[in-house]
Specification:
ten-stranded antiparallel beta sheet; 51% strand; 24 strands; six-stranded antiparallel beta sheet; mainly beta; 289 residues; 1 helix
Length: 289
Protein backbone atom coordinates (compact mmCIF):
# COMPACT_ATOMS: atom_id res chain seq x y z
CA UNK A 1 0.00 0.00 0.00
CA UNK A 2 1.23 3.50 -0.78
CA UNK A 3 1.12 5.47 2.45
CA UNK A 4 -0.33 8.96 2.43
CA UNK A 5 2.56 11.28 3.31
CA UNK A 6 2.19 13.17 6.54
CA UNK A 7 4.55 15.79 7.91
CA UNK A 8 4.10 15.04 11.58
CA UNK A 9 5.64 17.06 14.36
CA UNK A 10 4.95 14.65 17.20
CA UNK A 11 5.96 15.04 20.81
CA UNK A 12 6.53 11.43 21.85
CA UNK A 13 5.64 10.35 25.35
CA UNK A 14 7.44 7.87 27.53
CA UNK A 15 4.25 6.32 28.86
CA UNK A 16 0.55 5.95 28.23
CA UNK A 17 -1.60 9.07 28.30
CA UNK A 18 -5.22 9.74 29.16
CA UNK A 19 -7.35 10.33 26.06
CA UNK A 20 -8.69 13.90 25.88
CA UNK A 21 -10.54 13.76 22.54
CA UNK A 22 -13.22 11.05 22.58
CA UNK A 23 -14.73 9.61 19.43
CA UNK A 24 -17.73 11.80 18.51
CA UNK A 25 -21.19 10.48 19.30
CA UNK A 26 -23.14 12.80 16.97
CA UNK A 27 -22.75 14.99 13.90
CA UNK A 28 -19.67 13.19 12.55
CA UNK A 29 -18.71 11.93 9.09
CA UNK A 30 -15.81 9.72 8.00
CA UNK A 31 -15.05 9.37 4.29
CA UNK A 32 -12.84 6.40 3.33
CA UNK A 33 -11.47 5.83 -0.16
CA UNK A 34 -9.70 2.94 -1.86
CA UNK A 35 -7.60 3.55 -4.99
CA UNK A 36 -5.93 1.19 -7.39
CA UNK A 37 -2.42 2.37 -8.25
CA UNK A 38 -0.49 1.80 -11.48
CA UNK A 39 3.01 3.07 -10.58
CA UNK A 40 4.75 2.33 -13.89
CA UNK A 41 5.46 4.05 -16.12
CA UNK A 42 5.56 7.19 -14.00
CA UNK A 43 3.70 9.29 -13.13
CA UNK A 44 1.54 6.87 -11.15
CA UNK A 45 -2.11 6.53 -12.15
CA UNK A 46 -4.66 6.42 -9.31
CA UNK A 47 -8.10 4.94 -9.98
CA UNK A 48 -10.82 5.38 -7.38
CA UNK A 49 -12.34 1.95 -6.80
CA UNK A 50 -14.43 2.50 -3.69
CA UNK A 51 -15.66 5.30 -1.43
CA UNK A 52 -17.45 4.66 1.84
CA UNK A 53 -19.02 7.33 4.07
CA UNK A 54 -19.93 6.61 7.69
CA UNK A 55 -22.05 8.84 9.94
CA UNK A 56 -23.08 9.11 13.59
CA UNK A 57 -26.18 11.14 14.39
CA UNK A 58 -26.46 10.86 18.15
CA UNK A 59 -28.49 7.65 18.20
CA UNK A 60 -27.58 5.33 21.06
CA UNK A 61 -28.40 1.66 21.48
CA UNK A 62 -28.26 -0.71 24.45
CA UNK A 63 -26.56 -4.04 23.71
CA UNK A 64 -25.61 -6.58 26.36
CA UNK A 65 -26.27 -3.95 29.05
CA UNK A 66 -23.74 -1.59 27.42
CA UNK A 67 -24.59 1.72 25.76
CA UNK A 68 -23.18 2.08 22.23
CA UNK A 69 -23.22 4.85 19.64
CA UNK A 70 -24.82 3.71 16.40
CA UNK A 71 -22.74 4.02 13.22
CA UNK A 72 -24.45 4.10 9.84
CA UNK A 73 -23.43 4.36 6.23
CA UNK A 74 -24.30 7.95 5.39
CA UNK A 75 -26.75 6.53 2.85
CA UNK A 76 -28.75 5.15 5.78
CA UNK A 77 -27.89 1.48 6.37
CA UNK A 78 -26.75 0.37 9.82
CA UNK A 79 -23.02 -0.44 9.97
CA UNK A 80 -22.46 -1.26 13.64
CA UNK A 81 -21.99 0.45 16.99
CA UNK A 82 -19.09 1.56 19.16
CA UNK A 83 -18.37 2.65 22.70
CA UNK A 84 -15.30 4.18 24.30
CA UNK A 85 -13.86 3.40 27.72
CA UNK A 86 -10.49 4.53 29.10
CA UNK A 87 -9.19 5.41 25.65
CA UNK A 88 -10.26 2.10 24.11
CA UNK A 89 -12.83 2.11 21.31
CA UNK A 90 -14.88 -1.09 21.25
CA UNK A 91 -16.85 -1.96 18.12
CA UNK A 92 -19.79 -4.31 17.61
CA UNK A 93 -20.42 -5.04 13.90
CA UNK A 94 -23.99 -5.26 12.64
CA UNK A 95 -25.28 -8.74 13.38
CA UNK A 96 -22.40 -9.46 15.76
CA UNK A 97 -22.64 -10.57 19.38
CA UNK A 98 -19.08 -9.93 20.59
CA UNK A 99 -17.43 -6.53 20.71
CA UNK A 100 -13.90 -6.15 19.33
CA UNK A 101 -11.17 -3.59 19.92
CA UNK A 102 -11.01 -1.02 17.14
CA UNK A 103 -8.55 1.52 18.61
CA UNK A 104 -6.64 2.25 21.80
CA UNK A 105 -5.69 5.91 22.10
CA UNK A 106 -3.88 5.67 25.45
CA UNK A 107 -1.59 2.63 25.30
CA UNK A 108 2.01 2.23 26.41
CA UNK A 109 4.80 1.82 23.86
CA UNK A 110 5.40 -1.91 23.46
CA UNK A 111 1.79 -2.87 24.20
CA UNK A 112 0.43 -5.73 22.12
CA UNK A 113 -3.19 -5.35 21.00
CA UNK A 114 -5.64 -7.55 19.11
CA UNK A 115 -7.57 -5.16 16.87
CA UNK A 116 -10.39 -5.33 14.34
CA UNK A 117 -10.13 -4.14 10.75
CA UNK A 118 -11.84 -4.80 7.44
CA UNK A 119 -10.61 -5.93 4.04
CA UNK A 120 -10.95 -3.30 1.28
CA UNK A 121 -13.80 -3.83 -1.20
CA UNK A 122 -15.18 -6.99 0.45
CA UNK A 123 -15.56 -5.43 3.90
CA UNK A 124 -14.77 -8.75 5.57
CA UNK A 125 -13.79 -8.25 9.21
CA UNK A 126 -10.75 -9.81 10.81
CA UNK A 127 -8.62 -9.56 13.95
CA UNK A 128 -4.89 -8.84 13.82
CA UNK A 129 -2.30 -8.53 16.57
CA UNK A 130 -0.35 -5.25 16.50
CA UNK A 131 2.41 -3.72 18.61
CA UNK A 132 2.47 -0.07 19.70
CA UNK A 133 5.67 1.63 18.57
CA UNK A 134 5.18 5.07 20.11
CA UNK A 135 2.57 7.44 21.50
CA UNK A 136 2.82 11.15 20.75
CA UNK A 137 0.92 14.41 20.56
CA UNK A 138 0.25 16.15 17.24
CA UNK A 139 -0.13 19.96 17.45
CA UNK A 140 -1.42 20.08 13.86
CA UNK A 141 -4.42 18.00 14.95
CA UNK A 142 -5.35 20.14 17.94
CA UNK A 143 -2.99 18.32 20.29
CA UNK A 144 -4.55 14.89 19.81
CA UNK A 145 -2.73 11.72 20.77
CA UNK A 146 -1.24 9.81 17.84
CA UNK A 147 -0.49 6.12 18.24
CA UNK A 148 2.12 4.70 15.86
CA UNK A 149 2.13 0.94 15.27
CA UNK A 150 5.15 -1.21 14.43
CA UNK A 151 3.14 -2.47 11.46
CA UNK A 152 3.00 1.05 10.00
CA UNK A 153 -0.53 2.10 10.91
CA UNK A 154 -1.36 5.30 12.73
CA UNK A 155 -4.32 6.07 15.00
CA UNK A 156 -5.38 9.65 15.74
CA UNK A 157 -7.29 10.21 18.97
CA UNK A 158 -10.97 10.95 18.42
CA UNK A 159 -10.62 10.50 14.64
CA UNK A 160 -9.47 6.94 13.98
CA UNK A 161 -6.94 5.43 11.61
CA UNK A 162 -5.18 7.76 9.16
CA UNK A 163 -5.84 5.23 6.39
CA UNK A 164 -9.58 5.24 7.08
CA UNK A 165 -12.09 3.98 9.62
CA UNK A 166 -11.72 0.15 9.84
CA UNK A 167 -8.58 0.23 7.65
CA UNK A 168 -5.91 -2.44 7.91
CA UNK A 169 -3.12 -1.59 10.39
CA UNK A 170 -0.07 -2.58 8.38
CA UNK A 171 1.94 -0.94 5.63
CA UNK A 172 1.46 -2.76 2.34
CA UNK A 173 3.51 -2.53 -0.85
CA UNK A 174 0.71 -3.75 -3.11
CA UNK A 175 -0.68 -1.52 -5.83
CA UNK A 176 -3.40 0.19 -3.87
CA UNK A 177 -3.92 3.19 -1.62
CA UNK A 178 -6.20 3.52 1.40
CA UNK A 179 -7.07 7.01 2.63
CA UNK A 180 -9.17 8.74 5.19
CA UNK A 181 -10.09 11.50 2.78
CA UNK A 182 -11.98 13.51 5.34
CA UNK A 183 -13.39 13.44 8.86
CA UNK A 184 -15.65 16.15 10.23
CA UNK A 185 -17.52 16.75 13.47
CA UNK A 186 -20.46 19.16 13.70
CA UNK A 187 -19.41 22.17 11.59
CA UNK A 188 -15.67 21.58 11.73
CA UNK A 189 -13.17 19.55 9.77
CA UNK A 190 -10.91 17.41 11.95
CA UNK A 191 -8.92 15.62 9.24
CA UNK A 192 -6.82 16.02 7.15
CA UNK A 193 -6.58 19.66 8.35
CA UNK A 194 -8.72 21.17 11.13
CA UNK A 195 -10.89 24.07 10.06
CA UNK A 196 -14.45 25.20 9.37
CA UNK A 197 -16.79 23.16 7.20
CA UNK A 198 -17.85 19.57 6.75
CA UNK A 199 -16.74 16.64 4.64
CA UNK A 200 -19.54 17.18 2.15
CA UNK A 201 -18.08 20.64 1.44
CA UNK A 202 -14.43 19.62 1.39
CA UNK A 203 -14.51 16.42 -0.64
CA UNK A 204 -15.21 15.81 -4.28
CA UNK A 205 -15.57 12.05 -4.30
CA UNK A 206 -18.86 10.21 -4.33
CA UNK A 207 -20.56 8.94 -1.24
CA UNK A 208 -21.35 5.29 -1.92
CA UNK A 209 -24.98 4.29 -2.08
CA UNK A 210 -26.18 0.76 -1.31
CA UNK A 211 -26.90 -1.66 -4.11
CA UNK A 212 -30.64 -1.68 -4.57
CA UNK A 213 -32.39 -5.08 -4.45
CA UNK A 214 -31.84 -6.67 -7.81
CA UNK A 215 -29.74 -3.69 -8.87
CA UNK A 216 -26.53 -3.65 -10.85
CA UNK A 217 -24.03 -1.21 -12.22
CA UNK A 218 -25.31 0.90 -15.10
CA UNK A 219 -24.53 -0.23 -18.64
CA UNK A 220 -22.46 2.38 -20.50
CA UNK A 221 -22.27 2.74 -24.27
CA UNK A 222 -20.35 3.72 -26.23
CA UNK A 223 -17.34 3.51 -23.95
CA UNK A 224 -14.85 4.85 -25.05
CA UNK A 225 -16.85 7.76 -26.43
CA UNK A 226 -16.12 10.90 -28.42
CA UNK A 227 -18.96 12.74 -26.68
CA UNK A 228 -22.30 11.31 -25.58
CA UNK A 229 -22.41 8.23 -23.36
CA UNK A 230 -25.72 6.46 -22.71
CA UNK A 231 -26.54 4.78 -19.41
CA UNK A 232 -29.16 2.16 -18.67
CA UNK A 233 -29.95 0.25 -15.50
CA UNK A 234 -32.64 -2.01 -14.07
CA UNK A 235 -33.24 0.52 -11.26
CA UNK A 236 -33.92 4.27 -11.51
CA UNK A 237 -30.82 6.40 -12.01
CA UNK A 238 -31.63 8.83 -9.22
CA UNK A 239 -27.99 9.78 -8.60
CA UNK A 240 -25.24 10.62 -11.06
CA UNK A 241 -21.78 11.94 -10.32
CA UNK A 242 -18.86 12.32 -12.73
CA UNK A 243 -15.37 13.02 -11.38
CA UNK A 244 -11.81 13.27 -12.59
CA UNK A 245 -9.32 10.69 -11.34
CA UNK A 246 -8.23 13.11 -8.63
CA UNK A 247 -11.80 13.32 -7.31
CA UNK A 248 -12.78 16.72 -8.77
CA UNK A 249 -16.50 16.94 -9.51
CA UNK A 250 -17.26 17.64 -13.16
CA UNK A 251 -20.30 19.31 -14.67
CA UNK A 252 -21.50 18.03 -18.04
CA UNK A 253 -24.86 18.23 -19.84
CA UNK A 254 -27.12 15.38 -18.74
CA UNK A 255 -30.55 14.10 -19.70
CA UNK A 256 -32.09 11.63 -17.27
CA UNK A 257 -35.34 9.68 -17.52
CA UNK A 258 -36.16 6.82 -15.18
CA UNK A 259 -33.71 3.98 -15.73
CA UNK A 260 -31.80 5.71 -18.53
CA UNK A 261 -29.60 8.76 -18.89
CA UNK A 262 -27.28 10.42 -21.38
CA UNK A 263 -24.17 12.40 -20.47
CA UNK A 264 -22.42 14.60 -23.02
CA UNK A 265 -18.66 14.49 -22.44
CA UNK A 266 -17.84 16.67 -25.45
CA UNK A 267 -16.70 19.53 -23.20
CA UNK A 268 -14.13 17.31 -21.44
CA UNK A 269 -10.54 16.73 -22.51
CA UNK A 270 -9.67 13.20 -23.68
CA UNK A 271 -8.91 10.94 -20.75
CA UNK A 272 -10.34 8.58 -18.14
CA UNK A 273 -13.15 9.70 -15.82
CA UNK A 274 -15.10 8.08 -13.01
CA UNK A 275 -18.88 7.72 -12.98
CA UNK A 276 -20.95 6.97 -9.86
CA UNK A 277 -24.62 6.01 -10.00
CA UNK A 278 -27.20 5.20 -7.37
CA UNK A 279 -27.42 1.73 -8.85
CA UNK A 280 -23.91 0.97 -7.60
CA UNK A 281 -21.66 2.55 -5.02
CA UNK A 282 -18.37 2.01 -6.87
CA UNK A 283 -16.85 3.93 -9.72
CA UNK A 284 -17.18 2.94 -13.36
CA UNK A 285 -14.49 4.08 -15.75
CA UNK A 286 -15.56 6.21 -18.70
CA UNK A 287 -13.05 6.97 -21.44
CA UNK A 288 -13.34 10.18 -23.45
CA UNK A 289 -11.45 9.77 -26.74
Amino acid sequence: MYQVPFSLALMFLAGGAVAQFPMPDSGAVWLNTFYGVEPFPPPAVFTLLQAESYCVDGTDTLINAQTYVQLHYCSGDYKGAFREAEGRVWYLPAGGTQEVLLYHFAPLPGDTLLVYHETPLSGAGQLTQVVVSSVGMAPQWEGRQVVQLNEGGQWIEGIGAAWGLFSEPWMNVSNYLLRLECMSHLDSLRFPTPGPGGCDQAMAVAEPLPLAPGGSAANLHPNPTTGPVHLSSNVPLAYLLLTALDGRRLQVPAIRSGNTATLDLTVLAPGVYLLFTQAHGRAQRVVRE
